[in-house]
Amino acid sequence: MHNVELILPKNENLIKEAVTVLGGNVVPLKIASHRNSKVENITNMKHKLLVEEAVAALNDEPVNSQPSGAYLIDFDTIYSDSISGQGKRRWYFFQLAERKKITLYMSPTSDTTVDNDLILYKLDTATGALTELARSQNGPATYELLSYVGESGVYLFCVAAYAGDTANEFSFMARLSEKWDAREGDDSIYQAQEQFIGTIVKHTIDNSIDQDVSFFKITNAGIYSLMLMNVPPECNYQLQLLDSNANLIGSVAKNTTSTVRLNAGGYILRLLSSDGTFDVDAEVGVMVAAVPDNATGYQVWNTEDGTHCIEIICVPITGATNKYRYNVRIDGKMLDYQHCAVETVKATANTQSKCSMNTSLDTNAIGVAVGQYSGHKNTLLLSMDNAIYAESHSMKSYNFSDVSSASHISSGTDQYGMGYYIGNWSCVEQLPNMNLILDMDTMKEIDFRNPNWFYGNASLAGYKVCGSPKSANFIFNNKIGIFEGI
Prior knowledge:
The chain is mainly beta and 486 residues long. It has helices spanning 14-22, 32-35, 51-57; strands at residues 27-28, 71-72, 79-83, 89-96, 100-106, 115-123, 130-136, 144-150, 153-163, 168-177, 193-194, 201-203, 211-218, 222-229, 237-243, 248-253, 256-262, 265-273, 284-290, 297-302, 309-316, 324-330, 333-334, 341-347, 351-358, 365-373, 376-384, 387-397, 408-413, 419-431, 434-439, 444-449, 474-482.
């Protein structure tokens, strides 16, 4: 069983990292160029702050304490401002010329009695109405982050003091992305979409502060696997697991899988870059898989390139004593290795040979390895306790001695009146320890071995005439081995 590594999220210091990434400093908002930029003619606002409160606040609050006094901001610039306590607002605005993904980030204060939220609106320039689009309402002393895919127009956002009665400073930044995945915006818990058990969900990280948040539901307490796949080597992504109150339970490093015992309830997944590295074109996979309640053993690992996750689940065979079935699950889908058929064929002008392997309901997996095979990048080699092996060979010759050892011989005359013979060799046997070779990228059976007449094994049919078989290219370095003691 894998332990879940408890790691505090590095993104609590995102504002410091953003300064480094952008190569700039925090810019105070209260400068003339921003003070004089306001949004006018807002008459109908859909937010919690009443107009009467905003008007009263003008007596001792700065101009951007109401929407009509919002400061204009630039993108990729870190600003600082202050807010005086519960119920107060600080307003800002920007304009989009075309469709973009908006990411807003606000740094936390160290005072645990202070809780500031972040809310995004769009302005109807015809009516002055504000429509809420997204919000981030994390707990005290926690950063706020939200995202939204917006069309052209004017957008306002506010820092809203939910709790706290003392003045405090905060920093924030707005960033635009040119590309994003289909689930955006999903940077806050309030925007999270459901991740269904046993389903791979594809995500992209489109900027250094992007986070993809989702949730899943557990109805039955048990052991669950959390998988993070296909992360590029140069990117340091992390998948965090949180409880329903957004408390961190643990995390999964890139291209790995962790198992954890979970009680019934709701859980949150948060995908982020731990150091700001990202590849906007890299689709990474996130999956939560349930380990069956009757499993007596479980192993899980990822391929070296992180594109696939393989699980081995040991369960008792119904009606049998001390006998077990080893189920194989690839990327959350069960591999039906009991209904596999693979055939290799080789033919010349006068010969034809076939070699095949078929599994059955009596076939059980006993070992596994992961590696490469003859041009196939991600290959699974599955050892089985038994399978049906068959060979058939035929040869046409004008010399009877060439086919004299055949199990069946027929004869005929060609168009020139010359007599010829056709010999047929065949065998069918149930054999132990055969290996199925599966391409995990296509989920297709591509070959088999032990025996395979074409790859160096002696012919069980006794056919020794048609040349020498050549060796196949097997490279299976990540061998897990026999499943006994799993």
